[in-house]
Amino acid sequence: MSVRTSYVSFPTAATPSLVVAGRLNTITTEDAAPTPGVVICHGSDGVDGRGQFHAEALNAAGIATLEIDMWAARGALRGAAARPRSPVETLPDAFAARAFLAAQPEVDPSRIGVMGFSWGGVVTLLAATAEAQPASGAEPGFAAHVALYPVCWAYEVAPGLSLANLTGAPVLIQTGDADAYDDPDGLDQLLSRLPPTSRSLIRGITHAGAGHGFDRDLPEQTINDPFAHKGKGGPVRMAFHPQAAKAAREAAVGFFSETLGA
């Protein structure tokens, strides 16, 4: 098995129309059989190493990856102040990335998942809803979803953020009990707000001692975000948690290997 890296770009159906760039890692197997694939969506800090951290493990498991840069196409680099108003605006980027990945001869178009961090985690979850599917219906939805610290308090609370009507694809949510966006049991609270049909599709893991961005292997930093502290706004400490990062990466690889048949 070998991994080939390409730097690619493709148009999306965002408004206005955009061209999004990404890093594509495809897998060549001994029997040349198509492999599963995963679209990776960054957080508010932009492409910062988290995607590559998970992509390397997914590639080693025989899963192709496409990490996209949603900010550069919009003239932004990073941070809460420069991002779009809502993750809904970047959903077309994720679905366009899925279509681009599906068109690669090394990838099985029926076995493509999506994962993301924070902002990208919200995109990942919204992409699992029936309402978010492309209007044309020409492209199938994602086959599996892994969201890391996706601001759990907001669903069924903030307008436009609901997981009540999912497509049926399996979902894994991973968060930490020291995440400043949520209560320590924020993931459990989210699951309790959902109807049984949605709860049955979602697996949840809460990593002890881990805060927001726990898999971000960069110097510690504090940001301010209006969505933090259950929507009250304020500072968020982002610090690398090696144990949680390793566990989350293993869980993501295991989940995608199971659901996508790697």
In which range does the helix fraction lie? 25-40%
Quaternary state reads single chain
Overall 3D shape:
globular
Biggest beta-sheet profile: 8 strands, mixed
What is the string of SSEs from the N terminus onward? Answer: EEEHEHEHEEHHEEHEH
Summing up helix and strand content along with how strands pair, one would put the structural category as alpha/beta
Radius of gyration: 17 Å
Terminal CA distance reads 13 Å
Tally of helical runs? 7
Task: Describe the protein.
This protein has seven helices and ten strands. The chain has 262 residues and is of the alpha/beta class. Strands 1-2-4-3-5-6-7-8 form an eight-stranded mixed β-sheet, with helices on both faces. The model has no long low-confidence stretch (mean pLDDT 94).
Task: Give a quick rundown of the structure.
The chain has 262 residues and is α/β, with parallel strands linked by helices. Helix content is 25%, strand content 27%. An eight-stranded mixed beta sheet has the order 1-2-4-3-5-6-7-8, sandwiched between helices.
Topology summary:
Blueprint: E1 2-12, E2 18-28, E3 35-41, H1 50-60, E4 64-69, H2 91-102, E5 107-117, H3 119-126, E6 145-148, E7 171-176, H4 186-193, H5 196-199, E8 202-207, E9 221-225, H6 228-231, E10 234-238, H7 242-260
Parallel strand pairs: 3-4, 3-5, 5-6, 6-7, 7-8
Antiparallel strand pairs: 1-2, 2-4, 9-10
Helix pairs in contact: 1-7
